[in-house]
Known about the structure:
The chain is α+β, with helices and mostly antiparallel strands and about 170 residues long. The protein contains 5 helices and 6 strands.
Amino acid sequence: ITSNLKVTINQSGKSDSKTSRISIRHPGVSHLITDIEKALDQMTYILTSQEKAKLKRQSKKQKEKLFKEFWDSRDPTPGTVSNELMEEYYKRVAYTNEHFTGIAGGWKSEMGMIYIIFGVPEDIERSVMAQSHGNYEIWYYYRISRSFIFEDRDGLGYYRLTTPFYGEPF
Length: 170
């Protein structure tokens, strides 16, 4: 939760005010999350169909509870203060929001999706042609024997995934 905090001190007929922006964190929730609804939307790549269907029927309060349950069930080290998987996931989301553009930019872009699911590519091959619309990038993930080809068809920097991806990352 992020809010403004205003403090006013009155003394001897004089007053002074200061306003600061503060964030209140929930225990066990990444510091990168400021809006649970948005964070749930950003989980689209890892939620099962059943989990997505369950979320649609819930109130805001219930969604917050389910958010915590979803991440608790995915916590690689239960009982610790931090959920390392949640931290890594939302670090990737934040990275994509800063570095990937497109009609659906950031985490919603096709590059964003692949980056969030698989992480940093182990190798990248780029072709950039100054006068052409044939720009592309190939991201290599040797540890899983996969590569993904992104093509910028219109020359505007909006890379589209041309490699078939059916949502089965592992």
